[in-house]
Write the structure tokens for this entry.
Amino acid sequence: MIRTKAYAAQNANSPLAPFEIGRRDPGPEDVQIRILYCGVCHSDLHAARSEWQGTLYPCVPGHEIVGRVVAIGGKVSRFKVGELAGVGCMVDSCGHCASCREGEEQYCENGFTGTYNGPVFGGENTYGGYSETIVVKESFVCHVRHDEQALAGVAPLLCAGITTWSPLRHWQAGPGKRVGIVGLGGLGHMGVKLAHALGAHVTLFTTSPAKTADGERLGADEVCVSTDQDQMARQANRYDLILNTVAAPHDLNGLLNLLKRDGTMTLVGAPPAPHPSPGVFNLIFKRRRLAGSLIGGIRETQEMLDFCAERGIVSDIELIPIDYIDRAYDRMAKSDVRYRFVIDMASLR
Ligand code: NAP
Ligand code: ZN
């Protein structure tokens, strides 16, 4: 066992605090990573504060992990000690169901193992990236090919990046397509950057007029304040794809109205309570689709990381020490984050 410093929530109501966990000694197929940076996803907040129910405590959140390989098992062939590595939301899956065989481990029919709060098949809890080190099966570790000084901004690619990349690719965002990104937070700002980099015409839909200039700087061709009915009316029936990243329940009708015939709105935001059901006529008259999408597979995550490394794409971050985490959660709950908090893990050592 490797004794590891971490930060944990002990229950839904008290602040996160220092906590020691044990990591397994690396097995033949394992990679041990010394964590340098870990992004702070809204899912961490949902889980730490048990907003989704079902949180196992103690809970060590964190699934946007970058670091350096410090040890490898005897059968590891793709990583060497000293290399940079990334780990996202999953650390294992069954490996033999149809989804796993197709490289869509996030849809594992036997349930993937989450990086945290994801009991391993033996039944133990898993602990995430708010910690010094992590031991992960090689097949769930990605290569990081960005310049080393960009590393803190790479961490959020492991969740916010892949969660927006996967639906953008699935619904073929690219030249000639109009894509709307709803919500400019961690996921949304990566959605804007990636949809722009893929060549789509991008519109940001935000409830925060003060984020307009940032939306344009990040790559949006247009910014629409979604609470302004006149602005929304001008955008109706124009979009091939709407990527909805909002972390709270809200009325979907106004957003579905943005879709052209056969357009799709995919939900990636995962609010603790359901959205009110949208009007059926809004869907049937234009054969619109309402869909969902969950993170992305490991092969696709590597593709996205390499795409971003080649183009110098990283997340816009605010680097924080680990003892700021509860303030960061409170600010994120108020949409006050530009645009991802990332923990400097040196602050834990
Ligand atoms: P975030 O940084 O807090 O961003 C969410 C954004 O949504 C906010 O910045 C805000 O943007 C908008 N928003 C918040 N409350 C709103 C409200 N009441 N009405 C309208 N807009 C609102 O969160 P995140 O880390 O990007 O995560 C977003 C959601 O995705 C979370 O629920 C998270 O759990 C989920 N998630 C899902 C997956 C998946 O695989 N599907 C993966 C990761 C995360 P504006 O100020 O621009 O309006
Ligand atoms: Zn996440």
